[in-house]
């Protein structure tokens, strides 16, 4: 069955970005001139998904406003004859159908946030996007994953080779090879094991295609690491029942969820923009020398 629903958990507190995130969502911080969340929604559109389910929370109203029509702004831009930017602004509210569900305070973790989408998703496979992971890929990361799902009819988790630091930061996968060197059958998943206990160097990145059975598993999952309901724990308990593959996507990921990754992503994406790249390059050369 075709995947149509995209779930974006955006209810987190963004503590690594305080004080910037005291009164504004981390997901609305701009990378160059576009909020982080818009990159993820555009990726979903490229993957052919059309129902965007955003799991929001306290103080996240600007995300809803961003994807809503802004008549006053459009009128003002029209009057000023700023047709190009008007086009861009109009495009945002027509990226898909948007549905909002709210995770109540305090946010109880990623697993709990995904559970909030249960009724909307229903009984079908769905995609999950953690917008902090900004994917810069020749073919949209989720599009690559949807293609793999269509071939395997299984759950797919985006994966990337990592180092000792990554083994401390991310979920790490124990895998078996398949015929496709980018595709691995998942045998186990461990949240932030550290280099000593990591079963491999393959880390979970923020894109998933999950079966609806995950919701029941999340409901049965108690609080895990740091008192939160972890998605990893629910996936782990579903592994024996459903087939899961790790897919090493083609492309590059930027971790915009922490300050240095965010700055690097800003520079990398800025350098790709023809209107500012030359100036930016000159500046980087200047400060580097
Ligand atoms: P993160 O752990 O990166 O986000 O979760 P966070 O908790 O906001 O950030 P820090 O660690 O405090 O700095 C990945 C995604 O999951 C969402 C976040 O909004 C982010 O987009 N999330 C996380 C929720 O929606 N609810 C939660 O309970 C936790």
From TrEMBL:
SUPFAM superfamilies: Nucleotide-diphospho-sugar transferases
Gene3D superfamilies: Spore Coat Polysaccharide Biosynthesis Protein SpsA, Chain A
Domain Nucleotidyl transferase: 10-267
Keyword Ubl conjugation: no
InterPro entries in the record: GalU_uridylyltTrfase_bac/arc (IPR005771), NTP_transferase_dom (IPR005835), Nucleotide-diphossugar_trans (IPR029044)
UniProt EC number: 2.7.7.9
Stored Pfam families: NTP_transferase (PF00483)
Molecular function via GO: UTP:glucose-1-phosphate uridylyltransferase activity
Broad EC category: transferase
Entry keyword set: Nucleotidyltransferase, Transferase
CDD domains recorded: UGPase_prokaryotic
Family according to the record: Belongs to the UDPGP type 2 family.
Matches recorded under PANTHER family: UTP--GLUCOSE-1-PHOSPHATE URIDYLYLTRANSFERASE
Protein name: UTP--glucose-1-phosphate uridylyltransferase
